[in-house]
């Protein structure tokens, strides 16, 4: 597991690579062609970060220069309005939430993980003018603005958890390439928008429809406008399920740029990559989509178990669907000290892709015995479920608390890393925290 991508001080970041530091901090894409001065969303972000209403001489401010207002900051700094977040990658921006910051029932935006495959598009000047086109195997292809979506379709608000297919990748050995997510590439948002199904049905889905293909406005890292950063889709039967949404608000706020604002798809329970951000087009196809992230080893796992490190031919790989049962301990924070013999409150959340979580258990003796935790029903289908328990550590010394969720089909989280796969997806092994009793 690599720790070299942990949050770094702003100064250190600028010392290493000033242009990249700019891009990382203020969301600006720099490069030989766009080198120069901050403008647009980047300038707005910098202005907010330095704590002023404006930067009158911004046009003279050189790129790659750390603003003096921030130069003395030590430790973590803010990136895309985030707080306490771990930087797993800076180009593209990938941010992981430490588990203790997932304690809230609904994950605050400032703590919600970010997974980008490409650059950030520019902030939309007129969000309601954002256009989505629906075409392909439909009777009446159309283009619709976000403003019209709000008017024409029933607005709903739902909680739903969103998890990256590669969450937990850091646990696999040998280590697959990709972001070394530990456990925090997951969050539970409160999303407002309309049903994806209503929009697809308005276009009249034909019987020849097999799969959706999602396109977004984010630029490919190469800068090549012909290439997609990510373009995935889902089987049409899945797309037409009730819980999927076109989202324009998150936690009661306009959907932030980092999370796909002004408009994204949400397919809860499936790998996060199905939930296209900055969505501009839904192409209904007569075959499985073959866009960026659909083929080869991307978001696929071997059909049959393989030896760790095996080379798996493409034809033996299958597209991932529902995410597996999983849970996280959000309190206490790992490495806490606790008095022995006294009750210690432990809590967290659990989720199970398309399924529900049926039971939650904790162990303080490395899995030898288990005690049942109290488990809540989800706020609505696809929301994560909260659980809590009191444990008592029998003596002073080092303990680990292990958490194990079981879904309504009887599947439970393994203690060890589950089936190795070339890209390191679907690691739902038990979360463990360290507690030192004194
Ligand atoms: N357009 C676009 N949509 C995207 C991505 C992307 O890179 N581009 N990343 C996907 C992946 S892999 C995940 S896990 C989720 C993460 O959503 P979040 O950044 O809002 O947490 O967005 C998905 N949607
Ligand atoms: Mo992801």
UniProtKB/TrEMBL annotation:
Residues in Moybdenum cofactor oxidoreductase dimerisation domain copies: 320-435
Keyword vocabulary terms for this entry: Metal-binding, Molybdenum, Oxidoreductase, Signal
Gene3D superfamilies to which the protein is assigned, alphabetical: 2.60.40.650, Oxidoreductase, molybdopterin-binding domain
Tell me its cofactors.
Mo-molybdopterin
The residues covered by the Oxidoreductase molybdopterin-binding domain are 124-291
What InterPro entries does this protein's entry cite?
Answer: Ig_E-set, MoCF_OxRdtse_dimer, Mopterin_OxRdtase_euk, OxRdtase_Mopterin-bd_dom, OxRdtase_Mopterin-bd_sf, TAT_signal, TAT_signal_bac_arc
Quote one Gene Ontology molecular function term: molybdopterin cofactor binding
* GO BP: sulfur compound metabolic process
Cross-referenced NCBIfam families, in alphabetical order? Answer: TAT_signal_seq (TIGR01409)
Protein name in the entry: Molybdopterin containing oxidoreductase
Origin organism of this chain?
Answer: Halomonas heilongjiangensis
